[in-house]
Amino acid sequence: MKIALRNLHWIAILGLILTAACAAPDNNNAPANSNSAPAAEAANANTPTAQPATPLTTIPPPAAAPAPPPPQPATAQPSTATAAKPAEKPAAPAAGPKLLMISQEKDLDFGKQPQDKTLLRPIRIKNGGTQPLNIESVTPS
Amino acid sequence: MDFPKVLRPGQVGTIRVKVETGKSPGPHTKSVTIRTNDPNEMSHLVQFKFDVKG
């Protein structure tokens, strides 16, 4: 009977060992699963690199988008050209004061004159500009 | 010299010039310089011609 009890005791111990062993593999499986999960992440990590590859292919279209802007500058140039045309028009009218001689050259030819005579002659001038004409001085030379 | 100090845009003015013929006979040329604020012609030279009889 003692031998049978000892065998039962050993059987119980083995049972505990087996249960412990079964428990241990569970812990090992868990890390195994955790390892498998990173492996899947690594696989996913590889796939994301493949996904950016597709965005790279989509980048060229943006490059094609800048192409349309060049036509805009082309339209801007005509606008500057049109801006230059109005600038030429204001140049035609005299900006600021403008001295114009009304008296002709023949009016300034006194012809034959006697000696020791004082000649008084008018010179007609006009301000052909858009601003007041200041006559600072009239001096004989 | 008698001249207007300021001419408004479009206004016409008269500068009265007095010239002495002198005693030397023959052709003479005298000039008058008009100085204004015209940016394109700050000074304008006006010449008078006369011939003094001997």
Helix content of chain A: 55-70%
Cross-sheet strand order for the largest sheet of chain A = 1-3
* Beta strand % of chain B: over 45%
Instruction: Give helix and strand order of chain B, one letter per element, not per position.
Output: EEEE
Task: Report low-confidence residues of chain A grouped into runs of 5 or more.
Answer: 29-34, 36-60, 78-84
Task: Outline the biggest β-sheet of chain B.
Answer: 2 strands, antiparallel
Distance between the termini of chain B: 28 Å
Order of helices and strands of chain A: HHHEEEE
Q: What is the number of strand segments of chain A?
A: 4
Number of strands of chain B: 4
Taking the alpha carbons of the first and last residues of chain A, their distance comes to 158 Å
Radius of gyration of chain B: 15 Å
Mean pLDDT of chain A: 66
Assembly type of the chains comes to heterodimer
How much strand content do the residues of chain A show?
15-25%
Count of separate DSSP helical elements of chain B:
0
Tell me which protein chains meet in the greatest interface and how many residues each side has.
Answer: A-B, 41 and 45 residues
Write down the overall geometry of chain A: rod-shaped
What class do helices, strands and sheet pairing of chain A give? Answer: alpha+beta
Strand order of the largest sheet of chain B: 3-4
